[in-house]
Amino acid sequence: MSNSPVRRDPRLIPLSHDHHVALFRAREVVLAVDGVQPRDARELAGTLVVFFDAELARHFEAEERFLLPPFVARVGAEHPLAVELLRQHAEIRALAAALAEGASEKPTEAELWDRLKAWSTAITAHVRWEERQWFNAAQEALTEDEMAVIGAALQREGPSCRA
Q1: What does the domain layout of the chain look like in residue ranges?
Q2: Could you tell me how far CA 53 lies from the centroid of its own chain?
Q3: Nearest to 19 by CA among 103, 111, 88
Q4: What is the domain class of 10-157 according to CATH?
Q5: What are the residue ranges in the chain where pLDDT is below 50?
Q6: Sequence-ordered list of residues with C-beta below 8 angstroms from that of 30, at least 6 positions apart, any chain
Q7: How many Å from the N-terminal Cα to the C-terminal Cα in the chain?
Q8: Beta carbons within 10 angstroms of residue 139's beta carbon
C-alpha cells in the first residue's frame, strides 16, 4: 500500500473536507507562533477548544462509528491502522483537554503556546496520516456495499466541520 494519497472515494470526501478545516485551524497556530498573524494565546486556545468540541469531536465520532467498525470486521481489531487511529484520536482529545485547561486555568503564556503548538503538530500529522494511510487502507479493505452504507451514514449526519 502506498503512503501517497490515492483518488478519494466520493463517499469519504465529507471526512476529507473536515480535514481541510482542521488543517486551517492548525495553520492558525503556526501563523500566530511565527508572528504573521499575532493572536492572544488564551483566546486562540478558547477558539480551538470550541472548534474541537463543536466540530472535530463529531468528525472523530463519525470515523469511529461508521468507518472503523466495518474495517475492523474485515481486518481485525488489532490491525496496526485501527490501533493507530484510536491512539491518535485519544492523543488529540487529550491535547484538546489540555487546551481547555489552558484557556480556563492559568498556565504561563509559554506553557500555553507549547500546548497550542503540540495540538497543531498533532492535528497536521493526523490529517496527513489519515489521508495517506488510513483512508487508503479502508478503501482497499471495504466492499462497495460497505462504502455505500458509510457514505449514506455520513450524508445523514451532515458535515462535522464547517468551513
Answers
A1: 10-157
A2: 12
A3: 88
A4: mainly alpha
A5: none
A6: 120
A7: 31
A8: 16
The pTM score is 0.90
Three-state SS annotation for the chain? CCCCCCCCCHHHHHHHHHHHHHHHHHHHHHHHHCCCCCCCHHHHHHHHHHHHHHHHHHHHHHHHHHHHHHHHHHHCCCCHHHHHHHHHHHHHHHHHHHHHHHHHCCCCHHHHHHHHHHHHHHHHHHHHHHHHHHHHHHHHHCCHHHHHHHHHHHHHHCCCCCC
The x, y and z cell numbers of residue 54, run together, are: 463543536
Phi-psi region at 2: left, alpha or beta (left = phi > 0; alpha = psi -120 to 50): beta
Cβ(29)–Cβ(152) under 8 Å? no
- Contact assessment for residue 85 and residue 63, using Cβ atoms and an 8 Å cutoff: yes
Nearest-angstrom CA–CA distance, 92 and 49: 11
Count of all residues that appear for the chain in the document: 163
- The answer to whether residues 23 and 124 touch, using CB atoms and an 8 Å cutoff, is yes
- pLDDT, tens digit, 9 for 90 and up, residues 68-102: 999 999 999 999 999 999 999 999 999 999 998 87
